[in-house]
Amino acid sequence: MSTPFDPGLQPERTLLAWRRTCLALAVACATAVKFAAEAVGGAGAVVLGLAGVALSGWAYVASAARYGRVHRRLVRTGAAPSPGVPVLALTATALVLGSACFVYLVHRVLA
After folding, report:
1. C-alpha closest to that of 99 among 38, 27, 55, 36
2. Three-state DSSP state, 50
3. pLDDT tens digits for 34-61?
4. Which residues are CB-neighbours of 50 under 8 A, at least 6 positions away?
């Protein structure tokens, strides 16, 4: 990879922000397993947790790949591509985490 595109390093800051977000969601999904285990049982909670961590990992890898594409395109044309796949992966992770939280809350209210 060549030197960063701009002196402000905006693409690099964006990559770091994506990485922090992915890591935070992965930790939240792993933590949700503890609480979801009460509501859905051990295996269901583990599946939810693993799905969330896997989706978060996918977003992490996709954001790193996107950074490479953005950097190359900025160097060539000066325009950045749309975020696409990382946004989809983080949205899916948030939905899985939200589902786990919903199941936990419903179980707590109905129990």
Report:
1. 36
2. helix
3. 777 777 677 877 887 888 888 888 888 9
4. none
